[in-house]
Design goal:
heterodimer, A: 371 residues, alpha+beta, Rossmann fold, OB fold (Dihydrolipoamide Acetyltransferase, E2P), 2 domains, six-stranded mixed β-sheet, six-stranded antiparallel β-sheet, 9 helices, 21 strands, 25% helix, B: 271 residues, mainly alpha, MetI-like fold, 14 helices, globular
């Protein structure tokens, strides 16, 4: 199946030397939702503008439906945009906003039926005669989605569509995005800084940093098999804890030693012996013991619970001070009391190793799935 | 004391307001007065309301005043429409696009605001003579359409628009011209305000119509009224007052029509 959208080594440099994107390659087939995440300034929105045809790349090629898209206008590419704010024209009624693209294409006659149909699907029929200023933020985004739906655009391009909405509305609108996406059967690109949104909506996630693709993959793979320290640190909330150190050959097995931590790596760590590395541990991947039973199997380190953060999903996060560094540890149920002393050690089965200089993930020989 | 102060303040307000309102009221009532009454500032109200001055002005026995009012109306409307047609697209390009030489060109536009119009009137006069346009309404209308103020105004208006709006229009499939028209719809209050201000300025304009018009049939109302002074009439004040009152009606009526949009445009510029 030919991808509906294909980016080949796409780059974008602005006059003055600012490089917004470099060597981005990506194939997206019809029916896929691809989220683009990255810190601000990583080139997410630039990528969306290039796909939309609002900007031309300065390197590489974009193909739409197997044909080069260079010089094709947004109209010829058949895109629909939903932006964080200002997704609607303030001087037009909701109906006129939704019919705008249809009218431009001379489909005046069908416009009424198509707009009403789309409005019915999204439950915004009562809004058709209203003006954008009289709508709530959530209603406006629904209307913008409805406009894409009415026109049956081939590319649904969403740039932080839910970022200015509160949590309740966001949940409802995620559902609508998926509904519109399925109805269109098209390509949906979702730019977001909210990784929860990306992980929950997308079939695949593209992680960008400094204009370059760090990793592309299904949400689960980004969490379980990050390719680099950047991706590991960027994806996952709260963020992974990192400790700098070195792999050393112990009496029988290799082990990680650094910042006061000693973590057994098993025999498979042996090839890495002597390398400076960074150990990464997610908040949920700690072995926690009480003070008394700590000394039994592995030494671990002692820390004091400084405060407990409760999250909306019921997880409790203990901020534990260990030798001057604060480490966040997730407890599915109740966390220990504030002030409690804990014995901590990283769960070596789930810890990640990264090369210190490149940040690249290092594989352990007996764990082929890891890389 | 607590009651006295508001009363005194109110009285003061009435006195000050009357002081400033007096010339306007006097102007409004003057055309109805007889010649001897026009010499006196008081009483404010005429002894008897007479329409003789209006009659003498409108029946064209001294000057073709109805024709001249129509000239004014034509010049101000056409000039406003053309200025809008010129300044709004130019402001869109300056406010929304990047191109080589933009700063230099914009500076030229600003120069049009800074230079006094008097500087250009004589060169324009000889130029229009050359083109055979002297003493036509075209010669009176054309100089005002290239409004430097309009260019600067619309540049600011379009530059202040959120960047998302043109993107949205393009993504929906709008051509460049359609993007402009869509954005023009967004800034409609600014368009109406500019048109109103330009119409009023053009309506009151004295210098260009004075220089470009030779015969009474081409003169605009303000110039024609001023010409009454040098005429054979011994005492033209009654006619002058009647003409002034009539000449005030179109701008005031226009303001009444656009007052809401004018207000919202001002609010938008302030916010």
């Amino acid at each position: 199946m030919t991808p509906l959208l294909s980016l080949r080594s796409v780059g974008k440099a602005y006059p003055g030397g600012v490089v917004a994107l470099r060597d981005v390659s990506l194939d997206v087939t019809a029916g896929e939702i691809v989220a683009i995440v990255g810190p601000s300034g990583s080139g997410k929105s630039t990528l969306l503008r290039l796909v939309a045809g609002l900007d031309e790349p300065t390197a590489g090629e974009i193909h739409v439906d197997g044909r080069p898209a260079a010089g094709l206008s947004p109209r010829e590419r058949d895109v629909a945009l939903v932006l964080q704010s200002q997704s609607l024209f303030p001087h037009m009624s909701v109906f006129d906003n939704m019919a705008y693209g249809l009218r431009l294409r001379g489909r005046q006659a069908e416009a009424k039926a198509l707009v009403e149909n789309a409005a019915r699907m999204l439950g915004i029929e009562p809004l058709l005669a209203r003006w954008p200023a009289a709508l709530s933020g959530g209603e406006r985004q629904r209307v913008a989605l409805g406009r894409a739906l009415a026109r049956r655009a081939r590319f649904l391009l969403l740039d932080e569509p839910l970022s200015s909405l509160d949590a309740h509305l966001r949940a409802g609108l995620r559902r609508e995005i998926v509904r519109v996406h399925r109805e269109l059967g098209a390509v949906t690109l979702l730019v977001t800084h909210d990784q929860g949104e990306a992980l929950s909506l997308a079939d695949r996630v593209v992680v960008l940093d400094h204009g370059a693709v760090q990793q592309v993959g299904p949400p689960r793979a980004l969490l379980d098999q990050p390719r680099s320290r950047f991706v590991a640190g960027f994806i996952g909330v709260p963020a992974m804890a990192f400790f700098a150190g070195r792999v050393e050959s112990g009496p029988t097995d290799a082990e990680f030693r650094g910042e006061g931590w000693v973590v057994p790596l098993g025999r498979s760590g042996a090839p890495l012996a002597g390398r400076p590395v960074v150990l990464g541990v997610r908040p949920g991947h700690w072995l926690v013991g009480g003070k008394e039973d700590g000394a039994r199997t592995d030494p671990g380190r002692e820390g004091r619970v400084e405060w407990i953060e409760r999250t909306a999903d019921g997880t409790e996060l203990a901020h534990v001070l260990v030798g001057g560094t604060e480490i966040v540890i997730a407890f599915p149920g109740r966390a220990p009391e504030q002030g409690a002393l804990l014995r901590l050690s990283p769960d070596s089965r789930h810890a990640f190793l990264f090369a210190e200089e490149t940040g690249e993930r290092l594989c352990l020989a007996d764990d082929p799935a890891s890389c | 004391m607590r009651r006295l102060f508001p009363a005194l303040a109110g009285l003061a307000l009435v006195v000050v307001a009357s002081f400033f309102a007096f010339p306007f009221l006097w102007l409004l009532l003057a055309p109805f007065k007889s010649d001897p009454e026009l010499f006196r500032a008081l009483p404010l109200l005429p002894e008897r309301y007479a329409f003789d001055h209006f009659g003498a002005l409108l029946d064209g026995r001294h000057i073709p005043f109805p024709r001249q009012l129509a000239n004014s109306l034509a010049v101000a409307s056409v000039q406003t429409a053309l200025a809008l047609a010129l300044c709004a697209p130019a402001g869109y390009v300056f406010g929304q696009h990047r191109f080589r030489g933009k700063r230099a060109l914009f500076a030229l536009g600003v120069l049009g605001v800074v230079l006094p119009q008097q500087v250009l009137v004589l060169p324009l006069l000889s130029w229009f003579h050359e083109l055979g346009l002297y003493d036509t309404l075209v010669a009176i209308t054309l100089p005002g359409i290239a409004s430097g103020l309009g260019l600067v105004f619309f540049t600011l208006v379009f530059a202040r628009l959120p960047r998302e709006l043109p993107d949205l229009a393009r993504a929906e499939g709008a051509s460049e011209g359609r993007v402009f028209l869509t954005l023009l719809g967004v800034v409609r209050p600014a368009v109406v305000s500019f048109a109103f201000v330009h119409f009023v300025l053009s309506w009151h304009e004295h210098l260009v119509p004075l220089v470009m018009a030779g015969s009474p049939a081409t003169k605009t109302a303000p110039v024609a009224l001023a010409s009454l002074y040098g005429s054979t009439l011994r005492f033209p004040f009654g006619l002058l007052m009647a003409g002034s009152v009539l000449a005030c009606i179109p701008p005031v009526a226009l303001f009444w029509m656009v007052r809401r949009r004018f207000k919202s445009a001002l609010e938008e510029l302030v916010s």
